[in-house]
Write the structure tokens for this entry.
Amino acid sequence: MHVPLLDLRAQYRTLKSELDAAVLEVMESQVFILGPKVVACEEAVARYAQAAHGIGVTSGTDALLMALMAEDIGPGDEVITSPYTFFATAGSITRLGARPVFVDIDPVTFNLREDLIEGAITPRTRAIMPVHLYGRMARMDRVMEVARRHNLIVIEDAAQAIGSEFKGQRAGSIGHYGCFSFFPSKNLGGAGDGGLITTQDAGRADKLRWLRNHGMNPKYYHKMIGGNFRLDALQAVVVSVKLQHLDAWTAGRQSNAKRYHRLFQDAVLAGNQIQLPHLPGQIFDPNSTCRCRHVINQYVIRAQRRDELMAHLQKSGIGCEVYYPLPLHLQECFRSLGYQPGDFPESEKAARETLALPVYPELTDEQARAVVNTIAKFYGTV
């Protein structure tokens, strides 16, 4: 059986009439740059994220970049973040001439260890950029406590975590900025690149709106040097349509995660050859006092002989992927930072052991069983 890692065609088929009508309306209006459709999308996503303001931008990467720009972070400044994440997190910091300072991750959550942040702070530290990896939020209470003590800006990298919650508060609503991606493979994806920044501060929201449009306000008068970071109206309407279905899709992902756990345990795999992801709160116990919500952007296992398993799955027609095979501190472009192998052992271990399996909402029971059975055959448990 062929099981793709992600099946966007299946998603499109269920929404075809809604999406086609929304796109056609923009085509008929010929209002492609900003305009009422972008505003409607911004307001809807901000409400969903429990934020006062939403600013649509060109990508999740540019959302991170703009949040840093809005705080005038640049040469000589340092930003604390995780080495185990997509390149854009540290790349946006470096692009502005600032220095990413890494702290290692928690082996269970894959998010940066909040208890290590304070030890990484120097007089040059300006911000903390926690990453809500794989759809699970970092412990934002601890992050914010450290930030308040040291007067630091907090920029949430929530690219994989729209709708996730920590103690009842949603990703993007706690820090000074929340940065989201609408890349097509995300839980809430557009039809191309797109992103959004949330903030609770009206002054910061105004500055972001100027920055995304060349620092211009009013037209042809420039308050600052910005860039062309505007969200297209076509992307905005696609996101607006999909947002109405997001909670149902999240429930589907959570249901698939539960099913994987049961199937792996039945196959006598869990805790032996593979380690299953820890899924807190609402995944297994809706009455949990944790008040956490994991939106399962990826379902990531740790596996013995990971690369051999990946090759076996791919040969068997099962989609899978490694996020991320080389931590950021060991990337060639960051060699000048001076980090060495062994500096962040948990990040390096995760890079060697983790493997993402299909978990999209349309995944069928038959497909999930095929994934688990193929893994069980590899380890010889069936």
Notes: The chain has eleven helices and twelve strands.
